[in-house]
Specification:
Its main location: membrane. Pfam families: GPR158_179_EC. It is found in: Cell membrane. The chain is mainly beta. It has helices at about 90-95, 145-150, 155-160, 195-199, and strands at about 25, 30, 40-50, 65-75, 110-115, 125-130, 135, 145, 165, 170-175, 175-180, 190-195. It folds into three domains: about 1-75, no CATH class; about 80-165, no CATH class; about 165-199. The protein contains four helices and twelve strands. The strands form four sheets. Strands 1, 2, 3 and 4 form a four-stranded antiparallel beta sheet that branches. The chain has a three-stranded antiparallel beta sheet with strand order 5-6-8. The protein has a three-stranded antiparallel beta sheet with strand order 10-11-12. The chain is elongated and about 75 Å long.
């Protein structure tokens, strides 16, 4: 950082109103920290401000003074990315563009759900079955994104699809089987059969 002999003028108008989305914190671009940590770093920089005491009750007459700058470094590689499409309310309301949104490889019979703790790499999501679909018999739980990302083109085309649940389909769940039936009015209902008692 460049040091100055004369203090520099930095206009800071105090902390934001609670409804303001942006605060005084400035995020740096990712940079490689040579010699110290030898990692890609992203920093959050925020001023530490003191208010000159004035003999008045009015806040807008009080002036600000910068005492210091607080810097918090974060390992850029450990920051999660969200590859799922921006359909949930939280992402849409934040109004911040996600450059990785919609880069997941979930098929139309599935929906994407982000997973956290994967860091800055592909595959931090899982593909859950859409309503009216179920997992194939060989699949135990959702399709993991890191497995889908590593799959070859042929494996991707032939796998990672959910199966449509039709009327009269028996879906085994541990000790129970659920039979999906249609009554005479066309409404779906579920008939639960205990497999342990049926034996």
């Amino acid at each position: 950082y460049k040091l100055y002999e004369m203090p520099q003028i930095f206009e800071f108008l105090g902390p934001p109103h609670p409804e303001d989305p942006l605060g005084p914190t400035i995020w740096t671009r990712p940079y490689f920290d040579c010699g110290r940590s030898n990692k890609w770093i992203i920093s959050a920089v925020a001023p530490i401000v003191d208010i000159y005491p004035r003999h008045t009750a009015y806040r807008h007459f009080q002036s600000m003074r910068n005492l210091a700058v607080a810097v918090a470094d974060a390992d850029f590689i450990m920051m999660d990315i969200n590859q799922c499409p921006e359909t949930d309310q939280i992402t849409v309301q934040s109004k911040q563009t996600n450059l990785f949104a919609g880069t997941d490889k979930c098929k139309p019979t599935t929906r994407c759900e982000p997973l956290f703790g994967f860091g800055f790499r592909r595959g931090g999501y899982q593909c859950l079955c859409q309503p009216g679909y179920r997992y194939p018999p060989y699949q135990d739980g959702p399709f993991k994104g890191y497995i889908i990302e590593k799959a070859t083109q042929e494996e991707y085309v032939n796998n990672f699809d959910c199966i449509k649940v039709e009327c009269g389909t028996i879906v085994a769940i541990v000790d129970f089987a659920i039979v999906i039936l249609l009554d005479n009015l066309g409404f779906r209902f579920f008939n639960k059969i205990n497999l342990t008692q049926a034996k």
